[in-house]
């Protein structure tokens, strides 16, 4: 059951489920106009075709939309950028026409919409209000005790325990991900520096931890109020349960494999390439509760 705080947060969240993307692509007139404007903007020399150079901004936009870092910052991300470019050019052409651009863009957008339908994303604006509500709620004491029991390590100092405790909190508590470097730099570390150094260097008994963690969360809530953080959050949990379930039912598993195998081109059925293995995994994903490939490893 969801708490009142969770329900309020979800009510105010913006949910991305791919429906807007599907509506755009399926509306022929609107999508044609969208492609026309995009193509004209990209076609710098006005020759009616997009060169590899002219395609780069479109590829960068697609990468940003699926959460990839900027080109050049990761070999893995650069490989995906190259794969997207190859989708447009089929790995052979040095330029693409408007109809080719529209066809590939349609496929890519519908693929993104399918991923969002399977794994919707909530865009949350975390401004410290929910965190303050948690700190002042009757649930705080029990949760703080439970967190302390997980992180307590003998003579550990508060300076070590407080940041470790933050990693046990989630967006349901009103806390943005402590693992995010921007949250660490702009919120967590400055908040810790506001606490008295002599307090931070004390051993973390349960009573001391309980009081100082509450103060620490109060400082973090104030910082979030001054500088809110936008968080993209998914509610889905990928724990392998879907895979175990389908493997336990041989008939259903064989039927699923058959449906995927049908879509593999005949020439690739002996020694199937990685490209078609990735396609097969995407088709399996919805049935076995796998995360989208773009969500990370």
Name the descriptors.
disordered C terminus, three-stranded antiparallel β-sheet, mainly alpha, elongated, disordered N terminus, 297 residues, Recoverin, domain 1, 15 helices
Can you give a write-up of this model?
The protein is mainly α and 297 residues long. It is 62% helix and 7% strand. The chain has three domains: 102 residues, Recoverin, domain 1, CATH 1.10.238; 107 residues; 55 residues, no CATH class. The chain has 15 helices and five strands. It is elongated and about 70 Å long.
Q: Numbering strands along the chain, what is their spatial order in the largest sheet?
A: 1-4-5
Largest sheet: 3 strands, antiparallel
Proportion of residues in β-strands: 5-15%
- Residue share in helices? 55-70%
CA distance, first residue to last residue: 30 Å
Number of helices: 15
**What structural category arises from helix and sheet content?**
mainly alpha
Order of helices and strands: HEHHEHHEHEHHHHHHEHHH
Count up the domains.
Answer: 3
What is the number of E strands?
5
Radius of gyration: 24 Å
- Unreliable sequence segments: 1-11, 293-297
